[in-house]
């Protein structure tokens, strides 16, 4: 999926009405524009404009079915979005694993001051007195 198309998909889903339309299509299957417009306090034309944005982004399609023109959710677009998101999720997890390893090696080198006995000088932050320590 090109970055331009991906941008259109995410931009289309940035609107709460369009996200709701997509969710309703995912849950209930194909629907007409009139059926999709029912729960909103807007005109059918306004919902048609939302559908046009979703259609331009490749999230929905419309087909002729006798007298009806049902709106169909194009689920394959979500697979492409998921792959894109998953790539960055894995990269973030890798960074967190590396950070955890660095922090663990620092703890191993210095020892964990929180594991030291309360009266131990090493457990006290620099400049803190025993009185401050007891108060905390």
TrEMBL record:
CDD domains xrefs: HTH_ARSR (cd00090)
Pfam families cross-referenced by the UniProt entry: HTH_20
InterPro entries in UniProt: ArsR-like_HTH (IPR011991), HTH_ArsR_DNA-bd_dom (IPR001845), WH-like_DNA-bd_sf (IPR036388), WH_DNA-bd_sf (IPR036390)
Gene3D superfamilies: Winged helix-like DNA-binding domain superfamily/Winged helix DNA-binding domain
Region feature Disordered, mapped onto this chain: 108-136
Source domain of life: Bacteria
Limits of the HTH arsR-type domain: 1-93
Entry-linked NCBIfam families: HTH_metalloreg
Protein name from the UniProt record: HTH arsR-type domain-containing protein
Source organism of this protein record: Yinghuangia aomiensis
């Amino acid at each position: 999926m090109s970055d331009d198309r991906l941008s259109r998909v995410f931009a289309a889903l940035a609107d709460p009405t369009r996200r709701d339309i997509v969710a309703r299509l995912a849950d209930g299957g194909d629907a007409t524009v009139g059926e999709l417009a029912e729960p909103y306090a807007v005109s059918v034309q306004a919902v048609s404009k939302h559908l046009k944005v979703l259609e331009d982004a490749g999230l929905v399609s419309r087909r002729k079915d006798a007298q009806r023109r049902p709106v169909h959710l194009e689920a394959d677009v979500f697979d492409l979005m998921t792959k894109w998101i998953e790539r960055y999720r894995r990269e973030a997890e890798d960074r967190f694993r590396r950070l955890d390893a660095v922090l663990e090696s620092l703890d191993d080198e210095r020892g964990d001051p929180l594991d030291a006995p309360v009266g131990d000088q090493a457990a006290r932050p620099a400049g803190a007195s025993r009185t401050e320590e007891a108060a905390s």
